[in-house]
TrEMBL record, chains A, B:
<protein>
    <submittedName>
        <fullName>Glutathione S-transferase rho</fullName>
    </submittedName>
</protein>
<dbReference type="Pfam" id="PF13417">
    <property type="entry name" value="GST_N_3"/>
</dbReference>
<dbReference type="InterPro" id="IPR036282">
    <property type="entry name" value="Glutathione-S-Trfase_C_sf"/>
</dbReference>
<comment type="similarity">
    <text>Belongs to the GST superfamily.</text>
</comment>
<feature type="domain" description="GST N-terminal">
    <location>
        <begin position="3"/>
        <end position="85"/>
    </location>
</feature>
<dbReference type="InterPro" id="IPR004045">
    <property type="entry name" value="Glutathione_S-Trfase_N"/>
</dbReference>
<dbReference type="InterPro" id="IPR036249">
    <property type="entry name" value="Thioredoxin-like_sf"/>
</dbReference>
Amino acid sequence: MAKDMTLLWGTGSVPCWRVMIMLEEKRLQGYDKKLLSFEKMEYKSQEVLDINPRGQLPSFKHGNIVVNESYGICFYLESQFKNQGTKLIPDDTDQQALMYQRMFEGPTFYDKVGAVVYYEYYVPEGERHDSAVKRNREALVTELNLWEGYLQKSSFTFYCLSYVAVQMCYFLIHRLSAQRYPKLGEYHARVKERPSVKASWPPYFVEGQEDWDTLKDI
Amino acid sequence: MAKDMTLLWGTGSVPCWRVMIMLEEKRLQGYDKKLLSFEKMEYKSQEVLDINPRGQLPSFKHGNIVVNESYGICFYLESQFKNQGTKLIPDDTDQQALMYQRMFEGPTFYDKVGAVVYYEYYVPEGERHDSAVKRNREALVTELNLWEGYLQKSSFTFYCLSYVAVQMCYFLIHRLSAQRYPKLGEYHARVKERPSVKASWPPYFVEGQEDWDTLKDI
């Protein structure tokens, strides 16, 4: 079934991981999977540009159909393989509304963590300011507390997980304190045992995590 | 039908407008619509915070169900009112894949324009740099040319429109040159005649547009 699917991916990328979890959940193992190097800028290679003019990963092809945006790929797969593997859009109206709400809050969550973790990567040296670092960290604390509050009210189903939870793995890997954010910690502990998450765990996160402590004091 | 729906909105907001176009397309006129002031920070009022802890607009309620993220609201409405008004998710696989791809490229488009238009709003005075302004403008030109290229290959159906096209109205209102971006210009000309777009046109854009020329030279 998945023989006619190709995923070009990079290790350490949350959007790539999201797609890989989704492919596992939809029982689409056996797809053609090619790991490209961010360091060597292989995402700007002709192979990528041929299907993705943005030169970004993931880049995904199913037969002649190309979808590259990770959320787009998730929706596309759910639509094409509705009755295969895990159902990712709940039928229940309340649950579905909550899923859509949390799912589309996901990018905000990710932006806030990115503004802290990738500050030096994205902002050229001459444009960096302590005041911006402080503001970004404060915004992230607010955001984390918001999600901590969401989890106090109701646990997320796996419907949200493939979209949002992958980010939580990522945050915890960056040494976010599970003491200070116990609900996020619990959720992470549960998510990382999910077979789809285990099967797709990017090697980068295992090898490198010793050095990553950007979120330690958040 | 739409009597049990409430939309709290602000004029000039692309996400709010997106939802209003969607409500028109799904023939859900007659919903309870309350215009709040950004200037007076009414988006942080208790009325908003009661349903939206982020204190943002749009905030949307249907009966007891709350969805606030604009893309989430679009998906929710399409799911609940599938057979009413315009169908917003195409059945055809190719068309659907393309819609998901463009739809989720939309936020990147919006971010790039936002980085130019709102630079002074978001970046405190002491942290502003000409180098950043230059970089943001160049990134926007690249992005605009990408979409111009998309439109050269195939016109968007209305499927994409409610998600993406509202941004194009916005860009053109900010005096983006239809000479330099003729396909975007054509698309805008078509979109603004759509009854749903006309019916929901935010008053802010009519009154204020004389002064807006941030995108004039892009």
